[in-house]
């Protein structure tokens, strides 16, 4: 854990963190990785399992991802650098880009991952131009530009990577050297294809909605406008207006992605970037389009840093690991190496705002989720958000993000679950939590793959369908089954309705799970049967969750017969003692929940009264199968 300065409760009555705490955290991270630097500082060889790109690429990643942190830290202090961070990275930059150096970086046209790191390198160079780039010799600058030039013609994934080429070529252009303008125009044009409204981008084709919308798809275009302002002022201004409008809309909902405990919602890939998820909040202040009061922005940002610091994310010698708190290998993607977590550096973007900016001088105030209960429908990504002020828990019902087309072999807990939260994480084992499954003859659960959106007919409801598959099957059209699921949310209550359909009459065993709750916490998870379930239980888990060593998952089971069956449950994840008291007074079999089910003109509506008297209804069209 990073040893922070004494809390400043007058300025920051909720987290105690101020700008000084962020500066100290930045310095601590930068000092912690120095012992792992190579002799000439071009590679940072952190401990851990290598990524698919190999150890050499991982060492470059260690340099680049901490270099942008050094750049934020020094640029935000107008060049003040008491710990000599830029001098340390200057040596590595010179050695890494010199083709004759024993520590020469892998060429971008040979090791594609180097393009990702090149984007961080040029961002750092742009921010520290007067203190680093301008002080390089002409030969040293030639070496840097020669290395960056290796990106031309490199084939890349058709997703956020297009912005890496944009950033690299814009920096080259800023030096007055020849550059590939086509890489810039093509990249900026391509992201327009992925804008889906409400401030949301998909990370490439399909339904890839997660934090990449913020820390990549918003971040790089906005920063590009700042880099390009002197070269193409009219175009940069035009694009800035567009990107700021979208960012402002995105931020209207984004503050609800953080619980009062400081945690970001656990959903999507690359979650080891941790409080890097706060980057869009700081970006909103930087671009002048924040949806929050400055004191609320700092509260959320500092809350996330505090959450991970106190939770143990900074492990032995303050080095980050691949996981949520400590190391947790199952949540590591194949492209992730030991230095990958240092995209937490993006969470330090706020340091570019000087010490006199209101985001640092305003008194910290509570976040929106702490002030009142809220339900928000995000149609673009297919998310339904519910937050409760009493316990600060945020819940996300997922009816739109499936990371398809993508890797489909096996279950992907980052996208396949029906729901996620700020206070719990999915289990990394055969799907049970927040999942409905048809069990095969060996009692193996089906899995949820591509999500097909359906129209809902009741407020605060989202609906989707999927064709369940088993094992490594990926061709959904071969499945004789379809499950249509709807979620309605109010307060802590989450009504789930499932219509299970089979192509021919048959019998099958069904199972649904609720949220996975850490065993040693005040958090409680319940899954009450509403209709279609006969048996309930709790499964205790160990070693399969990144948030806690021991967890428990409530579950229900029932039977399907014929060609269609209806199943419904009331899921609850709460830290509110008043809600727990209401639930303990209920019959454990949910018999006090008396559902009303109506089907008329192809619309199914199921309604139920929650224990506090709140009425929830989930209605949706029963459409023909895909």
Which value, in Å, is the CA radius of gyration? 25 Å
What composes the largest sheet? Answer: 6 strands, antiparallel
Using the alpha-carbon principal axes, give the shape: globular
Q: Give the helix level as a range of percent.
A: 25-40%
Q: Report low-confidence residues grouped into runs of 5 or more.
A: none
Terminal residue distance: 51 Å
Overall pLDDT level: 96
Percent of residues in β-strands: 15-25%
Number of strands: 20
Helix tally?
A: 14
Pairing-aware structural class of the strands and helices? Answer: alpha+beta
> What order do the strands of the largest sheet run in, or round the barrel if closed?
8-9-10-11-17-14
Describe the structure.
With 626 residues, the protein is an alpha+beta fold. Helix 6 runs antiparallel to helix 7 and helix 9 packs across helix 10. Helix content is 29%, strand content 20%. A hairpin with a 2-residue loop joins strand 18 and strand 19. 56% of the residues are buried. The model has no long low-confidence stretch (mean pLDDT 96). It has a 6-stranded antiparallel sheet with strand order 8-9-10-11-17-14. Strands 7, 12, 13, 15 and 16 form a 5-stranded antiparallel sheet that branches. It has 14 helices and 20 strands. The chain is globular, with a radius of gyration of 25 Å.
